[in-house]
Structures are given as structure tokens and as C-alpha cells.
Amino acid sequence: MDIKATVLDILNDLTGNDVSGAMDDNLFDSGIMDSMASVQLLLSLQSELGVNVPVSEFERSEWDTPNKIIAKVESLA
Amino acid sequence: MLTFEPYGNPTYFALLGVALLPLMIGLLYGKRSRLYETLVSIFFLVLTFGGSKWTQGVALIIYILYEVVLTWGYAVYRRNHNSGPLFYLMVILAIAPLTIVKVTPAVENGQASLIGFLGVSYLTFRAVQTMMETRDGTLKNYNIMTFLQFMLFFPTISSGPIDRYRRFEADYRSVPDRDKYLGMLQKGIRYLFVGFMYKFILAYYFGTILMPKLQLMAMHSRGGFLDISWPLIGYMYCYSADLFFDFAGYSLFAVGTSYIMGIATPMNFNQPWRSPNIKDFWNRWHITLSFWFRDFIYMRLVFWFMKHRVFKKPTTTANVTYIINMLIMGFWHGVTWYYITYGLFHGVALVINDTWLRYKKKHRQSVPHNKFTQIFAIFLTANLVCFSFLIFSGILDKIWFLK
Question: Per the UniProt record, which residue ranges are transmembrane (chain B) (predicted)?
Fold first, then answer.
């Protein structure tokens, strides 16, 4: 399974929203994501993709849209 | 010798203008003189911590040396090792001076600690953050001189905003091009003038003129249910206005001065009175503090709880961590019943807020959402916040317990 599909799966599970139709929407401004969901995302990335992201790597402005998250994960994988 | 409270009076601003002029000309021509910047910093630090406040100055120097030894020592250690217990020990050591400063008045009948100085909290936040990012491996090239500049950056030393090591370093090591710097200069000067209005006109009116009168009236109107009276309610709004204009004013001075020095220190306030809920309020009020708590306490605790599966449900994890997070914030303000109650109040408010947001998300069809509900949400949030500031103000302590 490729990174994009996995990340979208994780986001869908986490937020209960299908985000694949709005890849550049800000997930925090719309209230879909918050700090809690961010941590859950980091933990899922670790367990499902083996990508280790320390909390201080999580600069919110670099992780606030589905596209940015995918790009970030691809750069860290 | 003269001593000044930072941004306290016109003389301070006059000195600031004179000292910053050569720096501005340098930056306009693409040059940053580290030597000159350091001399300016030392000059203003001496103005703040010298003269009759020399004991604070000594405390500051000892404190800084102590934190340098800890952060530098840990950075050297972290290159080849990564022990959890040692990291926790280092964090405890880094916050030990602040803990002593905060606990001393509570156990010594209000006596201030000898090792305290203006800004000790804000410096501790910066040092702890440097250490945590070193542990995470996101901060790899710790440099003592940069750390000193970061800690002792005079515009923000006394009360923030709380910058981040890596963000500060990136600004400090580079020179903005002329267009960018002119933009910063324009913003910086505007911030200073808005700050004048906030701090010297509005905060002066609410805090110095109106508040003492309302306090006196509230003290005379005791006797009713919980000693609540109209003047007390007036005091609540007046105190809230003073708190906002005073601190937002100071923050504008600190950010404005930073911008003039070519450093884009993050903003501390973003229209907090238009927040539709408490969660959003903390994204707009004392932003650098609440983000510090979010990134270095809340998210880390949640991460730890989830990794070790302490609680079954994620919502329980979030709720427990909200309460812990806000209680720590309360204790940080000082060990008094009203600061701790204030923290607890906001913790509980965040839990209720989150529950409501989840309910609203699930029942999107049945919960009305229109202009009226939005205005009501803003009104409710602002009033809850003002009520929390009434607790925070400590006036209830006087009204209830002062004979």
C-alpha cells in the first residue's frame, strides 16, 4: 500500500471525515483535527508505516492539510 | 543609577530609539553587527537588572550560567546517548529554580525568593524547550552563543513572547533583504504605536483610574449572596479589560522592538475576544504560552498516555490531559487557591467544550448554526473568560477572607 493511501486511511479513521476530496483544506481551521488528533496521527504513522515523528517535529503549519501531511510523511519515510 | 521597568516610561523608549537607530541603518544596508547587538542587549539588561535591582541581576547571571551548563551538557551527552531517566532528571533540574521561586511565597508568608528575577518563568520555558528538542533530535547543532542570545534577547526577556530556539536562530543568523526588512520596520513601528494606545491609554484608564474605585466599592458592598455585588461584576469586566490591554500592549512593544531588530518574534494575541469557544480562545490569548503548554506538556503527555495505553478511550486521555495541563498552568501563575482554581476552571471548560464539539459534529443536522448562534457563542465565551479572570484577579480572596 502506498503512503498516500495509508495516510488518507489514517486520517479518515481518525477524523471520521473523508478528506480525499479536500486535499488542500486546513484541517485545524475547520476543527477536523486538533492536538489530540495530531498525536494519534503520529502514533498511527509509527505503527502503520514505521515512520518515527517526534512531537517537536510536528510544526503545525507544516502539517495542516492532507497534501502537506502526505508530503511530510514521504520526506520522512 | 537608573533602573527601568522594560517599556515602562518615555525615557526607556527614547533610549530604545537611539540605540536601535544604528542597527536599523545597518539592516537596511544588509548588515547585522553582532557586536553592536550584543552591546545594546547588555545595555538594556543593565537598565532592567542593575542599580537598585542588582540582586536580581546577580540572580539572573547565576541562573543563566546554570541553564547553560544544563543545556550544553545535555546536548553533548545526547550526541551519543539517549537515556530516558537522565532526560527527566535534566528537565527537573532545569525547572528547579522556577519551582523554588514559585513555591517560596506560599511557604514563607508571601516573601519573594532570593533567586527570583523578572522573567525567570519565560527563560525557563525557553531552556526546557531547548532541552526537549535536543532529546527529540530536532535540535542538533546546539550552540552556547546562540543559546545565550536566545535567552537574553532583551526585547522579550521580562514577559515573552516565548520564542523557539530554532526559529530564533534562523532569524538571528540571517539578514532580511531590504524589502522584507522595510515591511518588518513598518509593522514594528505600527505595533509600538498600537502598544502605546493599549498600555498607556486604555490599560491606564481601566487599571489605574477605574479599577481601584470599583474594588473599593465592591469591598463596601459585601454581605449579599457570596458577597457578589454590581461593583464586583463591574470589577470583573474592568480587570479583564486591564489585563488584556496591559499585556497585549506590552507584547506589542516586545514584538515591535524585535521586528525593528530584524527578528520576527511570534505574536502573543490574535483578537481573543472574538473566540467562539474556549478552545479557540487559547489559540488567540497569550498564544506563545498556550502553544508552549500545548507542544511541550499537552501533546507529550497525550503521546505518553496513548503509547502506554494508560486509558482505554482517546477522549478520556484528552480530558485527563486537559485538566493536568491547565492545572500546571494554574500552579505556574503562583501557588494560591485562586490561580489553581483558575487553572482547574479552564481545564474543565476545555473538557466540556470538547464534549460539546463532538456532540455537535455527530448531530450536525439537528444543531442549529447561524448568525445568532455564532454571536451567542462569542458572547458566552467572552463572559466565561471574564469570569475566569475574576477568579484569577484574586479579588475574591480579599472579598471573602479579608476582615
Answer: 12-30, 86-104, 110-128, 140-158, 191-212, 243-265, 285-305, 339-356, 376-396
Show the cell assigned to B401.
Answer: 477572607
In angstroms, the CA B109 to CA B111 distance is 6
Nearest alpha-carbon partner for B297 in B314, B313, B316, B321: B321
d(CA B314, CA A37): 9
CB pair distance less than 8 Å for B133 and A56: yes
Taking Cα atoms as reference points, which of B343, B334, B292, B264 lies closest to residue B123? B292
Nearby residues of B332 by Cβ (< 8 Å), 6 or more positions away: B102, B121
pLDDT tens for A51-60 read: 988 898 898 9
The distance from CA B141 to its chain's CA centroid, rounded to whole angstroms, is 26
Q: Where are the beta strands (DSSP E) in B229-370?
A: none
- A47 vs B: CB within 8 A: no
Question: Which of A31, A54, A57 minimises the CB distance to B357?
Answer: A31
For cell 518563568, what's the residue?
B121
Q: Which residue has the higher pLDDT, B93 or A54?
A: B93
d(CA B163, CA B259): 13
Which residues, in sequence order, are CB contacts of B366 under 8 Å at separation 6+? none
Domains and CATH numbers, chain A: 3-76 (1.10.1200.10)
Q: Enumerate the residues of chain B whose CB falls inside 8 A of the CB of residue A14.
A: none
What would the pLDDT profile of B247-284 be if each residue is shown by its tens digit? Answer: 999 999 999 999 999 999 999 999 999 999 999 999 99
Is B138 an 8 Å CB contact of chain A? yes
Interface ipTM: 0.91
Distance from CA of B137 to the nearest CA of A (A): 8
Asked if residue B4 has pLDDT above 90, the reply is no
- The model's pLDDT over B135-189, given as tens digits with 9 standing for 90+, comes to 999 999 999 999 999 999 999 999 989 999 999 999 999 999 999 999 999 999 9
| Chain A residues touching B298 at Cβ < 8 A | 35
Q: How far apart are CA B217 and CA B283, in angstroms?
A: 35
Grid cell 455564532 is found at: B374
Q: Is it the case that residue B204 has pLDDT exceeding 70? A: yes
